[in-house]
Design a protein that fits this description.
- This protein folds into three domains: about 375 residues, Glycosidases (TIM Barrel, Alpha-Beta Barrel); about 50 residues, Alpha-Beta Complex (Oligo-1,6-glucosidase, domain 2), CATH 3.90.400; about 70 residues, Sandwich (Immunoglobulin-like).
- The protein is an alpha/beta fold and about 550 residues long.
- The longest helix has 16 residues.
- An eight-stranded parallel β-sheet has the order 11-10-9-5-2-1-15-14, covered by helices on one side. The chain has a five-stranded antiparallel β-sheet with strand order 16-17-18-22-20. The protein has a three-stranded antiparallel β-sheet with strand order 6-8-7, with no helix packed on it.
- Helix content is about 25%, strand content about 15%.
- A hairpin with a 2-residue loop joins strand 17 and strand 18.
- Helix 10 packs parallel to helix 14 and helix 11 runs antiparallel to helix 12.
- The chain binds 6-O-alpha-D-glucopyranosyl-D-fructose and calcium ion (CA).
- The site of 6-O-alpha-D-glucopyranosyl-D-fructose has 14 residues, from strand 13.
């Protein structure tokens, strides 16, 4: 039966290509992660989520899989994987693998067969359609620019690819294919993997009548046409009963298009997933054009997203909390202040995350306050979404300078610079030339510099993780936001069996009056060394956590 360890978990996300290179080829690998298992354990996290490590042409950072049963050769061998899993388990850490079942690589043998002829037995593993003359079957745009349809000369038909041309969508309507995908899940679960992150799971059932999209808002198109299709609940229930129910496994479903109205449908106790990633925060600064159409975000909206989702999961289902990952810019740059108050704001964001309902997912490097970096020109980008985005922008006459501003604000390269282990060459990530630019600020921001610094982000991160693990109220308690006279003050309350914990956050670079009398309360943690009770102001980016005195306590 599926397990429930995810409710007490704190998950550390590792993007293997950028975590640690053990053999000097400039590419992170599994042996590199094994070298750092004691570091990972020392964080106090309880599980690791690995981005995809399967054989892949690496068109989209490994989210284009050409063999689900073998390890990406650059990352190592199956023996290396077994050693990594054993190393995690021996340290009491769980492993969540990232399975991409909505699409495969076009270099997967299934697609190589499928494209050969219209009557090939693998033809229906994918979506093939006639065009309308020279036009694609409909007006659906790809996530990565251009049409979501690609004409394949061999048979003169188009195939669907919501993402890159090298990521043809798998046709889940085909039962034979679904059985193949279940075999893949069983293979990894039989090896003892503890959890699965199901990539773009909301898209495995789409509008397979393929009508034109009727909106120019890209996230709207995703929600109405690409995801939440008529058989999504059925397919999730099918993998639950045919596979997941036979293992002590947890699942986290990822997918744009999940809404407060439909999320619980996918989290049914009997037929559903364990938890989901919603995109409430991630899309709030995206305009109708999506990622490269940024718009300002407001703290009001930021707070509202927690309000809406915490009430969605107040009684059923289970949420997750993340403020950054491999698909979005660095947390402290996007939501905090990565200049003068980088350390304070990084600690404040962790206080927010670790005191919120839902399982926290922390992206590698955020625990030391790593920041965005600046692409000086497009050719420095390694991300297909940015490179294709530039092609689209160029067609519309946008200058490289203007597009770069957007890419440097919202692009995925920001999160994929190598982990900063030390101030030495290549940040101690590799003895060779790293595949990706190392952020020049690694000389100031790195693990080695913070390991013995009680005031660093890293030390604070370990303390706030321990606080969450000590207080069940922070994991299981109710959530209530507190009205504040000043919008930049974000205060909420967690309550459980009479225990009340207040979290107060100053989301600004100036001191703000604190409207409560806290002398009687117990200070549990603050992000300033001189944090105390009885305060009447919060300093810039100050975060404090109080245990409130019970009314019946003497
Ligand atoms: O990058 C996005 C578009 O703004 C995100 O919405 C993201 O593409 C989407 O949430 C799905 O992400 C997942 O699937 C993609 C892959 O590129 C991402 O890295 C992965 O997290 C296709 O497999
Ligand atoms: Ca390597």
């Amino acid at each position: 039966m599926p397990s429930s360890w995810y409710k007490d978990a704190v998950v550390y996300q590792i993007y293997p290509r950028s975590f640690k290179d053990s053999n000097g080829d400039g590419i992170g690998d599994l042996r590199g992660i094994i070298e750092k298992l004691d570091y990972i354990k020392s964080l106090g996290v309880t599980a690791v989520w690995l981005n995809p490590i399967f054989k892949s042409p690496n068109d989209d950072g490994g989210y284009d899989i050409s063999d689900y049963y073998s390890i990406q050769p650059e990352f190592g061998s199956m023996e290396d994987f077994d050693a990594l899993l054993d190393g995690l388990h021996r340290r009491g850490l769980k492993l969540i693998m990232d399975l991409v079942l909505n699409h495969s690589s076009d270099e997967h043998p299934w697609f190589q067969e499928s494209r050969k002829s219209k009557d090939n037995p693998y033809r229906d593993y994918y979506f093939w359609k006639k065009g309308n003359g020279v036009a694609a079957p409909n007006n659906w745009p790809s996530f990565f620019g251009g049409s979501a349809w690609q004409l394949d000369e061999a048979t003169g038909e188009y195939y669907l690819h919501l993402f890159s041309r090298k990521q043809p969508d798998l046709n889940w309507e085909n039962k034979t294919l679904r059985e193949e995908l279940k075999k893949i899940m069983r293979f990894w679960l039989d090896k003892g993997v503890d959890g699965l992150r199901l990539d773009v799971i909301t898209a495995i059932s789409k509008r397979t009548d393929f009508p034109h999209t009727d909106t120019h808002d890209f996230n709207e198109t995703i929600r109405k046409f690409y995801t939440n299709g008529p058989r999504l609940k059925e397919f999730i229930s099918e993998i639950r009963h045919d596979v997941l129910d036979h293992y002590p496994v947890i699942t986290v479903g990822e997918g744009p298009g999940i809404t407060p109205e439909n999320a619980l449908e996918y989290l049914d106790e009997k037929d559903g997933l364990s938890m989901i990633f919603h995109f409430g925060h991630m899309f709030m600064d995206q305009g109708p054009g999506g990622r490269f159409d940024p718009k300002p975000w407001s703290l009001d909206d930021f707070k509202k997203v927690f309000e809406v989702w915490n009430s969605t999961f107040a009684h059923r289902g289970w949420g997750s909390v993340f403020l950054g990952n491999h698909d979005f810019s660095r947390m402290v740059s996007r939501w905090g202040n990565d200049a003068e108050y980088r350390q304070e704001s990084a600690k404040l964001l962790f206080t927010l995350m670790l005191c919120m309902p839902g399982t926290p997912f922390i992206f590698q490097g955020d625990e030391i306050g790593m920041t965005n970096f600046t692409l000086k020109n497009i050719s420095e980008s390694k991300d297909i979404e940015t490179l294709n985005g530039w092609n689209e922008a160029k067609k519309k006459g946008e200058s490289e300078e203007d597009f770069l501003k957007k890419a440097n604000y919202a692009g995925r390269d920001n999160a994929r610079t190598p982990m900063q282990w030390s101030e030495s060459l290549h940040a101690g990530f590799s003895s060779g030339n790293p595949w990706m630019i190392v952020n020049p600020n690694h000389a100031q921001i790195n693990v080695r510099r913070q390991e013995d610094d009680p005031d660093g982000v890293l030390s604070f991160f370990k303390r706030i993780v321990r606080l969450r693990q000590k207080y069940a109220t922070l994991r299981e308690g109710s959530y209530q936001s507190i009205e504040t006279p000043n919008n930049e003050l974000f205060i909420f309350l967690r309550e459980n069996l009479g225990e009340k914990i207040m979290v107060a956050l100053n989301f600004s670079s100036r001191a703000i009056n604190f409207p409560f009398d806290t002398r009687e309360n117990e200070l549990l943690l603050g992000n300033y060394r001189t944090a105390s009770t009885g305060i009447n102001q919060l300093r810039p980016w100050e975060a404090v956590v109080f245990k409130l005195k019970n009314s019946d306590e003497s």
